[in-house]
Amino acid sequence: MTQADLIGKAFTMLRTEKAMRDWCQAAEPLLRHDPGDAWYKAAGIVRRDPTDATIGSGNFTQGIPAFWFARALDPLMLEQLYTPYRDSAWVRRAIKFVSGPISSVDLVFTKPKLDASLRRHKGRGPRLFTSRGIVRREPDNEIELPQIRQWLREPMEELTYEDFVEASLGWYMLNECFWLLGDDLNVPFPEASKRPFQPIIVARPDRMRPVLEDGKIAAWEFTDYSGKTWALDKEQVVRLFGWNPYDPHRGLGDYPSAAIAAESHWLGGKFKRALTADNDTAPIINAKNGTPSDAQIDQIKMQILERRSAKQRGMSKTLFLPAEIDVHDPKILSVDAGFISSMLEDRHEIFMAFGVPPSLADVKASYSIGQASDWFALIFNTCIPVGGKFCAVLEKLILKLTGQQVEVALDWDEHYVMQQVRSERMKDADSLFAKGMPMKDISDHLRLGLPRFDNDDIGYIPINITPTQSEEEMAETAPKPEDYSEQPGPKPGEAEPPKEVQEMMRALAARGDAGPTVRSPKTEALWKAHMRIRTKAIKLFQSKSSKVFNAYRIAALRKLEQAKKAVESRGSRVEGKSLVDVIFDPKLFGLDLFKALEPVMRATLAMSGKELFEEIGQPDDPWQMAPGKVLSFVSSREALVKRVGETAQSQLNTALQEGLEKGETTEQLSDRVRGVFNNLSKYEAKRIAMTETNVAYNFSRQEAMTDAGIEYKAWLSSHGPNVRDAHAQAEDDYIDDPIPIDEPFEVGGEELMYPGDPAGSPENVINCQCIQLAADKQDEDEKSVTYLVHGAGEMTFRKKEVA
User: Fold this and answer.
1) Which of 393, 572, 595, 597 is the most exposed place for a label (fewest CB within 10 A)?
2) CA torsion sign, 553 to 556 to 558 to 564?
3) pLDDT tens, 190-215?
4) 285 phi and psi, to 5 degrees?
């Protein structure tokens, strides 16, 4: 047999690995030297010129089986990994890691759009992952292809859709994938057929050969397992392949870059298996004086077998051989740590080549599936892009089968890993929404893919958020002297205050108490110092109250618009009171207001007690008000705070009734509602802030003084505008003549344990800005008593002469 005959026969046997090995053994003597062009001509191979600039470097042959392209293989090597999917557990597992998630998510068929690439992430529909990226499609754009879905149940003969995906993507990652259609599959069968489309063939790439005309693929030749060759038109072949810079006619998969690692790991496994099987029964025999005689060989064999048999029975047997024979045990009896580490790196390299995170090749106690997990990296970096290519070729196949152009997408948002990631991002969404960011912008920013809904482009600020301010801003927004007026009236050009406030003002004016006309500059400075400390609490109360008013204003305006439309559609007339019941719930408002103010009350109680202990020279005292007293105080304020809802309801009812009687439009009624809430936010929120701050401060000071052992207390009245005469008189009476801590002050004919005491009447308590001071007795004689009023200094009170 000549060299050319041998080579020609070889290429008829290349379809089986056993034939390949047999041929290599027979051809070894003839192929020790360069066979020249005869080797290629006999095989019908066109050899390319390596200097051709249009070809790129690397492979210069056409028609060699695909596994030859995996790497530069020497045909004379016998230990080669020809079937990596079958023989390498890590190659197979890497393919399943990629194909498994892709086959587990639903396929979605939609109407294609020409501007799809320009509309990523936009629209109201769900997110779909296509070959053109992530798009949104309205639900009415989705189409059903029942015949295609039925065919996808068994797209390959006796194999499921999952097998079809694994086979297709497996060949794509190993080299390239071919879907072959028969002559009868160029057009669909009649719809009446139970199975309009027959299974296709997923061909091995090494059995496909391109037919070139003018350097372009004109047709394909397919060799089946029986060795028969079929000529296929280009329209009968659908390819799934990757970019190949070395051959424009064939695709390049991921496996070539992993071939060395895969083969090294495979050979390492074979070595370890052989070592484990043979290291105890294959000693090294050394004959010192030439070749042993036949009798000696038989003797050696017999003793080795006896030794092996004894060892299997758990016994030890010594070998007795002639002096000319030495027997040595193998030096390598088991693999070492370096060998195992090398095999571990091989599997990591295989996974990296296939786009699988290498850590998934390691054994772990548990696996996370969140945004920071390797599973998400696998889905996002590999499965989604590969799935997009799969969708692209499936679109081509559906077009050939049905003549219908559709857009194929994968619904990755339903995968459990993506669901976990979305749930983690929802926590970020909650945080952004709480800061006023509209839900639509949140969904777009975090790529949540949330469906659109009405008013999702509006941001809402929670009622419990308080704006942060720097010290300079706080100084600019600090209350001015007129803000501390005990008669909260409107400024010039502003609307009238609420009805309840006006009644209080009239009651105060009617009292006509003649207070002192001259105020002490010293006590005025002390009062201002206390009020500067209270400013933070006042602003906090006012901010919380205003947030609630604003939130209910927005809700009331929205409900007003809806109620007006509903009434107009029925053609009936609406009454003011019934309309208020629809747009405003006083009980719910009162509950929300109290919930917003309760934390501020508790903080103010603690702040006031700390201030008192610093004032009396005990700044390190860890005093805290007893929880029972805190709860009792907060509970006593609940009903009073919730009553604000009734005030708001009354004002809304009056305003809307007047507007309805005048026949005003919805816009005019909305202006009335807006005006009521703005008025409440100006005056009611301020009144709440002033009153609640003063009550909490002085109640806490009373309790702290008692616990600190303070025996006396004094009254410091407001030094702002419109101070109550009775309160100014109380300062004149008690500032230099403090009373025992457990006795009440007498103010305007009422007994008050501290300024703002709820036991007093509204006109004696509301908006009160007075302060209770701690006092200690310093000295006493027959004519006078001297007290140390903390903050005001020593005060001497002259005793009245007894007649």
Assistant:
1) 572
2) negative
3) 343 344 577 889 999 999 999 999 98
4) -110, 125
